[in-house]
Amino acid sequence: MKTKQPSIAIIIAPYHEKIAEKMYKTAVAECEARSYKIVEIVTVPGCFEMPLAVANVLDAHKLDGVIVLGMIEKGETLHGQMMAGSVFEALIDLQLDTRVPIGMGIIGPGATPKQGLVRAEGSARQAVEAVAAMIANK
């Protein structure tokens, strides 16, 4: 019996270009290693735009999972914390409403660019692993 190849979308915020590039390459390699079909790759200006991009790809495609990649940097104010809380809550709501797992590969809030570079590959890998675990549990 042939099993269906899972369909995945990747949403990436390349504001921190080097970090985003490492995350993207890692996520693609992890998806390829699992024989996931990457249906769409969407670039958004920043993490704040991710929930809308996720909603749009879920409306456009029948997906088995979505991977979100980006970083919310530590700033001098609480802006990043406030934004992250809103973004994370919106992504959780999308998961619950659609029953499609979203792999959270967003570093921060509160990370520095140096910390982001160190965490980029691991965060992307964990985002794909989270989706893979949820697909396996369906």
Tell me what you see in this structure.
There is one protein chain. With 138 residues, this protein is α/β, with parallel strands linked by helices. It has one domain: Rossmann fold (3-Layer(aba) Sandwich). It contains four helices and four strands; from the N terminus they run βαβαβαβα. It has helices at residues 17-33, 50-60, 79-98, 113-136; strands at residues 7-12, 37-43, 65-73, 102-111. It has a four-stranded parallel β-sheet, sandwiched between helices. α1 (17-33) packs parallel to α4 (113-136) and α2 runs parallel beside α3 (79-98). The longest helix has 24 residues, at 113-136. It is globular and about 50 Å long. It starts with 6 loop residues before the first strand and ends with a helix.
Mean pLDDT: 93
Terminal-residue CA separation: 18 Å
Please write the CATH class name.
Answer: Alpha Beta
CATH-level-2 architecture = 3-Layer(aba) Sandwich
Q: Give the low-pLDDT segments.
A: none
Strand content: 15-25%
| Named CATH topology | Rossmann fold
CATH superfamily: Lumazine/riboflavin synthase
Number of strands: 4
Question: How many DSSP H or I helices?
Answer: 4
Classify the secondary structure makeup into a structural class: alpha/beta
Helix content: 40-55%
Give the key terms.
single chain; 138 residues; alpha/beta; Rossmann fold; four-stranded parallel β-sheet; 52% helix; 23% strand
Task: Explain briefly what this protein structure is.
This protein is of the alpha/beta class and 138 residues long. The chain has helices spanning 17-33, 50-60, 79-98, 113-136; strands at residues 7-12, 37-43, 65-73, 102-111.
